Known about the structure:
The chain is an all-beta fold. Helices cover 0% and strands 53% of the residues. It starts with a strand and ends with a strand.
Amino acid sequence: xxxxxxxxxxxxxxxxxxxxxxxxxxxxxxxxxxxxxxxxxxxxxxxxxxxxxxxxxxxxxxxxxxxxxxxxxxxxxxxxxxxxxxxxxxxxxxxxxxxxxxxxxxxxxxxxxxxxxxxxxxxxxxx
Length: 127
């Protein structure tokens, strides 16, 4: 069993920054790619960013590239999402998730590629 707990969401003005954290327990954290997704009201859950199990590779959605940075600390079993230059369209509930495959060499861009999810943290950007 895996537990993921996100934190760091909140209300911020456009142009501001937030740092999300996701603390994991119950699985060998350092063996799995981790992803961040988000879901706005009335929309499907969408991929935001992913980081390889060893931290040596990352992938971003075009909409956040250059503004968001994903990182991880395997010793702390935590993955982060630094969000800068926030826009109103970034408003959503943000979720972290664990890739289904151990030591995956590719990134999963669909939620179906992840089998454990956190409860989500709300990010609201006011314009």
